[in-house]
Each structure stands twice: as structure tokens, then as C-alpha cells.
Design a protein that fits this description.
alpha/beta, Alpha/beta knot, Trp Operon Repressor, Chain A, 2 domains, 5-stranded parallel sheet, two-stranded antiparallel ribbon, 9 helices, 36% helix, binds S-adenosylmethionine
């Protein structure tokens, strides 16, 4: 099954470049995903194909009218379609949502501009997504973020192992990665990674993922059921963090600079 994505925008030219390159470009070229970029003005009102108007009640800027959006959605929708409004007030995009969207048949991404859309448009879509707590000039870049996050999860787009171990896939940030040279500007590579012991490498990586997540995104660990082994790693790292705060610093994880020393195995 090919995932089909329709993007509704007033600036179709903004989408072309990123969709031609790298993983999205290859997935589209191989027919794993189809992306159609549709100019919302096709459904504009009157001779001037107008799509916006001043806000009722006054105020700065223009608001996207509901009729062009409603007509466009009516034209594009089919059974199994999911229409998504890109909006700063939407649900924050997460890896789990990207995974959900990657399993759909047909996605319609609506990209408003100006001050946003007429409130009544919210009742015409299936969900609303935000890509973060900041305001972009329009929904196009947000839609591209969604498309990129989704496409790499479509089966066949990239090696499946890459998407299983990466950040957020298992509720953790990814472990530190190293490649050649073995020493760079005095910074080494943890011995375990060159030991050839695959079990030890896997254990080290999992422990580092836990440590990094504790240090950088403790909120992710709050919702994770830790196994006894994971609990031991997290408790030890928490003690190390407490020690650092009180000045009693015992270096352990790659996150706090083990990589800067040659041959450190923090596992
Ligand atoms: N007046 C709106 C507000 O304060 O929430 C902001 C409108 S913004 C200038 C124009 C459009 O950009 C929005 O309607 C939305 O489609 C898109 N946009 C801006 N920031 C976004 C974000 N963080 N996530 C998703 N879409 C965003």
C-alpha cells in the first residue's frame, strides 16, 4: 500500500526542494509514497481566487476563509483520508504520532498562512498538529517536518533497524554514536565499542540511552516502566548527577564527556 499525501498550500513552491532530496526524494521516486502539492487558490473565491479576509472584531492581519478550505477538503477527501491542520495550538508532534500517520492510506496536510484559519475549519479536520512552541509564518515548513518524519517510517524507506533504535522510538534518546578516527583532538572512543563483544555493546548502548535520557529529557523516563536493571543504571546516574551538583564529580556517561577521554567504558 502506498501512502498518499496531499498538501494544501498557498505557496506550492516551498515544498518542491525538500521533497526531491535524500530519503523523501528516494521514497517518492521508488513509489513508496506519493506527495501531491495543491494550490489552495484552486478553490479560491471569485475572479481573484480570494482565500482570506479581515478578522471579525478587528485586529491585525488576515484570516484564511473557511469556504476554500472546506471545498478543497471536500474535493480531496475519500474514505480512509485523515485531514490534518498544521497549527501552533495543535497536538505536539511526537514520534508515536509520526508512526501512526505512516500507517495511513491518505493524509491531507492543510497549511494556513496569515493569522491562521477561521475557527470553523477546525471542525472540518481530523486532527491538528504543532511542531513546537514557536510561530512559523505558515504551515508549509511544519508540513515538511511531518512529511519527513512520516516518510522515513514507511516500510522500505530506510533500513528498519535505524528506526527501531533511534531517539524516541522506545521512549528514550539514542545512545552516543562514534565512527573513525579512534582518537579525534584527544577524544577517544569507549573501549567497549571496539571490543567485538556484541552483548557488551548492546548493554552499554542501552545504559547510555538511559543515562542520556535522564540528563536531557527526564520527562521521558517519568512515563517509562523501568526494569530492575534499568532502575540500577538510572539510580547510579542520578547519584552521579547529585554528586556533580554538590561538587563531588565522578565522571561516568558519554554525555558528561567520557568521549573526551580516550578508552573510557562507562558501562
Ligand atoms: N495567529 C496564529 C497563532 O497565534 O496561533 C499563528 C499563525 S501563523 C503566523 C500562520 C500559520 O503557520 C498557522 O496557521 C499554522 O498553519 C502555521 N504554523 C505556525 N507555527 C506553527 C507550529 N508551531 N506548528 C504548526 N504549524 C504552525
Amino acid at each position: 500500500m502506498t501512502l498518499e499525501i496531499d498538501v494544501l498550500t498557498l505557496f506550492p513552491g516551498m515544498l518542491a526542494g525538500p521533497l526531491d532530496e535524500s530519503i523523501p526524494g528516494r521514497a517518492i521516486a521508488r513509489g513508496l509514497v506519493t506527495v501531491r502539492v495543491r494550490d489552495l487558490r484552486e478553490w479560491g473565491i471569485g475572479r481573484h481566487r480570494s482565500v482570506d479576509d479581515a478578522p471579525y472584531g478587528g485586529g491585525a492581519g488576515m484570516v484564511l476563509r473557511p469556504e476554500p478550505v472546506g471545498d478543497a477538503l471536500d474535493a480531496l477527501r475519500r474514505p480512509g483520508s485523515t485531514a490534518v491542520l498544521m497549527d501552533p495550538a495543535g497536538e505536539p508532534l511526537r514520534q508515536s504520532i509520526a508512526r501512526e500517520l505512516a500507517g495511513l492510506e491518505h493524509l491531507i496536510l492543510l497549511c494556513p498562512r496569515y493569522e491562521g484559519v477561521d475557527e470553523r475549519v477546525r471542525s472540518l479536520v481530523d486532527r491538528e498538529l504543532s511542531i513546537g512552541d514557536y510561530v512559523l509564518s505558515g504551515g508549509e515548513l511544519a508540513a515538511l517536518v511531518v512529511i519527513d518524519a512520516v516518510i522515513r517510517l514507511v516500510p522500505g524507506a530506510i533500513e528498519e533497524a535505524s528506526t527501531v533504535e533511534e531517539s524516541f522510538s522506545q521512549g528514550l534518546l539514542e545512545y552516543p554514536q562514534y565512527t573513525r578516527p579512534a582518537v579525534y583532538r584527544g577524544m577517544g572512543v569507549p573501549d567497549v565499542l571496539t571490543s567485538g563483544d556484541h552483548g557488551a555493546v548492546a548493554r552499554w548502548r542501552h545504559a547510555e540511552a538511559l543515562r542520556r535520557t535522564l540528563r536531557r529529557r527526564p520527562d521521558l523516563l517519568e512515563v517509562r516502566q523501568l526494569t530492575p536493571d534499568e532502575r540500577r543504571v538510572v539510580d547510579a546516574e542520578r547519584a552521579a548527577i547529585d554528586g556533580e551538583r554538590s561538587g563531588d564529580h565522578v565522571g561516568r556517561s558519554a554525555d558528561e564527556g567520557a568521549g573526551r577521554r580516550s578508552g573510557v567504558d562507562p558501562a
